[in-house]
C-alpha cells in the first residue's frame, strides 16, 4: 500500500488526510506544533494516525508521497530532507485535483480573493448550479473531493487559492482561472524577490488548455509585464479593466447584457472590478444574465472586508481587518468619501507606506496605532501633521478613535499588518473590534 505523509494539520492537511484515507492510502499526519482539537477529532474519526509537536523523520522519509500544507515554507529542515530523499512533495490542491471530476473556478490575487470567491459562489448558486466553495476559504479542496467520493457530487467548485497553495501544483487545471491583481505581499516566502511571487501566482494558468479561460486584471503592471515576458500557454485570455465600468454599469457586449450595481452591496472601484470578474466567470459557466443580476443585488460582502459594523453617535465604523497589506488599505481608503480615523498596526511585513501617503493626507484626520511595535508607522507618518495615538488592544483603539471622531466621520480598521502580536488571527482582530464598537453604544 502506498504511504502518504501529510505535513501540517490545519484545514488543508486534515482534508488531505481524510481524502487519502478514503482513497485507500496508508496515511500518517505530522505537525511540528499542536493540533487543534477539531482536527484531531476529524483524524480520529477516520482512524488516521498522527503526531504533534515534532516530526518522526524516519517515518516521514518512508513515504512514497508527501502532501505539504500551504503554511509550511519549502525551506524548512523537514521539507529539505524529504526533497533530498527524492520523495515527491505536492500541495493539497494538486492532490485533490487528481481525484476530482468536478469543474473548478480558481481565483487568486494579492487582494480581493475572498470577496470575489464568495461573490462568484453566490452568483453561481443564484443561477441554479450545484456549487461548493473552498480552498483558502471554507472547506479545503481535498475535503470537498472526499465528500465527492461519498456521492456529494457538484457541478462546480469555486476555489480561493493563495500563492502558497499554488507553489506545489503541477497538473491542477482550473476550467476558469482568475488573477485579480499582484502587489507586494508575503515576500519573505519568496526570498524578497517580487518575480518569484508573481511566478507563483501565474502557476494557476500553467496547465490550462485552449478550451479554458483566464480572466486577469489588464490594469495591473505586474500582470501585464509578466504576460509580455512569458508564454502562458494557449488558454483563452479575457482581460478586465476598470474602463469597462461606467457609471455603475458592467457591460458585457459579447453577451448583449449590462449589469447595474446600483443596488449591490459593494463599496469602491476595486469591488466593482471584483464584481465584473465574478460576473464574467458566472456567464462563462453558463449562468443566465437575469440570475447574475439578481445575485449582484442580493450579495452580502464577507466578514472583515469593508464590513459596516454600526453607526454610533453619528460616526460610522468599518471593519476591514482582512486588510493585511498596504495595497488593501489603499482600496479601503479609496472606498470611503468622508473624513477617516484610520486604525493601523500589527506585525509589519516590511510595509512601504508610500502607496497610501497621498490618500492619508487627503482623507485621514487621525491615525490610531494598534500593535506592540508601531515603530514603522510612527516613523513614516510622524511628520505628516496628522495626530497619531498608540494603543495595545481593540478596546483601546476603538475608544481612542471615538474620541478623535465627530459626527460625519468614519472609523476604519484597515491595519496593513498581520494580527499575530495581539490576536489569534485577522478574524479574531475583526470580531474584537466589532464587539468594542457595539460596547460603545
Question: How does this structure look, described?
Answer:
By secondary structure, the protein is α/β, with parallel strands linked by helices. The protein has three domains: 3-87, 3-Layer(aba) Sandwich (Rossmann fold), CATH 3.40.50.720; 94-298, UDP-N-acetylmuramoyl-L-alanine:D-glutamate ligase (3-Layer(aba) Sandwich), CATH 3.40.1190.10; 307-440, Alpha-Beta Complex (Protein-Tyrosine Phosphatase, Chain A), CATH 3.90.190.20. It has 17 helices and 20 strands. It has helices at 11-22, 37-45, 57-60, 77-84, 92-97, 113-126, 141-149, 163-166, 194-202, 221-229, 268-284, 289-298, 326-335, 354-363, 375-381, 394-404, 426-440, and strands at residues 3-7, 26-30, 49-51, 65-68, 89-91, 103-108, 131-135, 156-160, 176-179, 213-217, 236-240, 245-246, 249-252, 257-260, 307-312, 315-319, 340-344, 364-370, 388-391, 410-413. The strands form four sheets. Strands 7-8-6-9-10-11 form a six-stranded parallel beta sheet, sandwiched between helices. A six-stranded mixed beta sheet has the order 15-16-20-17-18-19, with helices on both faces. A five-stranded parallel beta sheet has the order 3-2-1-4-5, sandwiched between helices. Strand 13 (249-252) and strand 14 form a beta hairpin. Helix 1 (11-22) packs parallel to helix 2. It is globular and about 70 Å long. The termini are far apart.
How would you summarize what this structure contains?
The protein is of the alpha/beta class.
Amino acid at each position: 500500500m502506498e504511504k502518504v505523509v501529510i505535513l501540517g494539520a490545519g484545514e488543508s492537511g486534515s482534508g488531505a488526510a481524510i481524502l487519502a484515507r478514503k482513497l485507500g492510502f496508508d496515511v500518517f499526519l505530522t505537525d511540528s506544533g499542536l493540533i487543534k482539537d477539531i482536527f484531531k477529532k476529524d483524524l480520529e474519526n477516520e482512524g488516521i494516525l498522527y503526531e504533534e509537536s515534532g516530526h518522526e523523520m524516519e517515518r516521514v522519509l518512508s513515504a512514497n508521497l508527501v502532501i505539504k500544507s500551504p503554511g509550511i515554507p519549502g525551506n524548512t529542515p523537514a521539507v529539505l530532507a524529504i526533497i533530498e530523499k527524492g520523495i515527491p512533495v505536492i500541495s493539497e490542491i494538486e492532490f485533490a485535483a487528481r481525484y476530482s471530476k468536478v469543474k473548478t473556478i480558481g481565483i487568486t490575487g494579492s487582494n480581493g480573493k475572498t470577496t470575489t470567491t464568495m461573490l462568484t459562489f453566490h452568483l453561481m448558486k443564484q443561477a441554479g448550479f450545484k456549487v461548493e466553495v473552498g480552498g483558502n476559504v471554507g472547506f479545503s479542496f481535498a475535503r470537498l473531493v472526499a465528500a465527492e467520493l461519498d456521492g456529494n457530487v457538484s457541478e462546480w467548485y469555486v476555489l480561493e487559492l493563495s500563492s502558497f497553495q499554488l507553489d506545489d501544483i503541477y497538473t491542477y487545471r482550473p476550467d476558469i482561472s482568475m488573477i485579480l491583481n499582484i502587489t507586494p505581499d508575503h515576500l519573505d516566502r519568496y526570498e524578497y524577490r517580487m518575480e518569484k511571487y508573481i511566478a507563483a501566482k501565474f502557476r494557476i494558468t500553467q496547465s490550462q488548455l485552449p478550451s479554458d479561460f483566464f480572466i486577469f486584471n489588464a490594469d495591473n503592471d505586474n500582470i501585464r509585464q509578466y504576460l509580455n515576458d512569458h508564454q502562458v500557454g494557449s488558454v483563452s485570455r479575457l482581460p478586465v479593466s476598470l474602463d469597462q465600468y461606467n457609471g455603475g454599469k458592467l457591460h458585457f457586449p459579447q453577451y448583449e447584457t449590462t449589469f447595474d450595481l446600483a443596488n449591490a452591496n459593494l463599496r469602491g472601484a476595486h469591488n466593482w472590478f471584483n464584481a465584473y470578474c465574478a460576473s464574467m466567470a458566472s456567464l462563462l459557466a453558463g449562468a443566465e444574465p437575469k440570475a447574475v443580476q439578481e445575485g449582484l443585488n442580493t450579495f452580502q460582502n464577507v466578514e472583515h472586508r469593508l464590513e459596516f459594523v454600526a453607526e454610533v453617535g453619528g460616526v460610522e465604523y468599518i471593519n476591514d481587518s482582512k486588510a493585511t497589506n498596504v495595497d488593501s488599505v489603499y482600496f479601503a481608503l479609496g472606498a470611503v468619501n468622508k473624513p477617516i480615523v484610520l486604525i493601523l498596526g500589527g506585525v509589519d511585513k516590511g510595509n512601504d507606506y508610500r502607496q497610501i501617503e497621498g490618500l492619508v493626507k487627503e482623507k485621514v484626520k487621525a491615525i490610531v496605532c494598534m500593535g506592540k511595535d508601531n515603530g514603522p508607522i510612527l516613523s513614516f507618518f510622524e511628520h505628516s501633521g496628522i495626530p497619531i495615538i498608540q494603543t495595545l488592544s481593540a478596546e483601546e483603539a476603538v475608544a481612542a478613535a471615538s474620541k478623535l471622531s465627530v459626527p460625519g466621520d468614519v472609523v476604519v480598521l484597515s491595519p496593513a499588518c498581520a494580527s499575530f502580536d495581539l490576536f489569534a488571527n485577522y478574524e479574531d482582530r475583526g470580531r474584537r473590534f466589532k464587539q468594542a464598537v457595539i460596547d460603545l453604544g
